[in-house]
Give the backbone structure.
Amino acid sequence: MDIKYLDTADTAYRSQLDQLLAWESVADETIVDAVKKILADVKLRGDQAVLEYTNRFDRLNAVAMADLEIAKPRRESALNKIPAETRVALEMAADRIRLYHERQKASSWTYTEEDGTVLGQQVTALDRVGLYVPGGKASYPSSVLMNAIPARVAGVAELVMVVPAPDGQINDMVLAAAAIVDIDRVITIGGAQAVAALAYGTQSIPRVDKIVGPGNIYVATAKGLVYGAVGIDMIAGPSEILIICDGDTPPDWIAMDLFSQAEHDEDARAILVSPSAAFFDQVHDSITRLLPGMEREDIIRKSLESRAVFIKVVDLYEAAEIANHIAPEHLELSVADPEKLVKKIRHAGAIFMGRYTAEAIGDYCAGPNHVLPTSRTARFFSPLGVYDFQKRSSLIKCSAQAANDLGRTAAVLARGEGLTAHARSAEYRLNTDADS
């Protein structure tokens, strides 16, 4: 297998790297136009449009929206039907995710100044959230847990989950996960039409305040286009992993860690950074030997051949700078002293420290969220968390004294901006004996 190789000693290295990293996160005009048409149609015709698109794209024959909804008894049945070992794993993962996210919950606060003015912040949860759970090439019960649990911890009152069910098939583990986190409604729709239904509402689907969860390019494009009418978490690109290794981790482990992201889809990216050229050869040998035994061999092969890269560096500190430039979704520090190296990392979605910490642990059951920024957006985005489902309102209560003191300052600034009504609004409250 031919994997791209870069060396920071080459003068053209940085331009070559940036060319490899270039990813057109915005869909081409053909996709944008198609998504715009679907969004407008659903906004206009509601349920009927959703039904038509769902029947067409998922090869169904639903007559009414009720045919596409999965009631709680069926979800509970799926939970009871899955193997006991699987149920225990899902419930353990849910408990760990909940425990971690409980620590993120923000609280309201106030303080009182000497003149009696009260200032503060009131934290409230969103009322209703839409969860998009991917279908298609793989089923993701872990996405149900990762999206729903922080919303529940935040105090969101209603969760509406959409998940495509091509040919009427839906994974029992997805339904079991929905039962574990007590999703309010589960509707088997997907694609841009599902995003539109959540964003605008239809006769049977309530409009939500925010849409979270990953999807394909049509879903990502739709989320970008409805932003403003509804909140979104982020626009996710293909999965990615960057591994920094000093060359002393078993090469089979590293090869399989690269596979773990490459198997998502052909556009996933796997990057290995090391100061050891000999280690690249060892990992390449492991890839060649292990790949034929993988269930998703074709997808992994295409991903590695088209998007993977090995980068030779001078030392681990240079490796850290490369990681900061790439700002990967998943970053493994497979080195002897990860605690020292992590201090050099500024931009990454999730950081996996040490040789024994496989990225897959974070995907499922470590506790932190696996919904992470991709395509270099870890420079300014954070993992999904409780804070994404909470809002903050400022609290201001002026005493009579503050109405005088602050009012005069506000009036001066308002007149400076030419906003006379602002100034007079503050001045009306000057020299008053009112208590509040």
Summary: The chain has 17 helices and 15 strands. The two ends are 75 Å apart (CA to CA). Residues 4-25+237-366 form a domain with the Rossmann fold fold (CATH 3.40.50.1980).
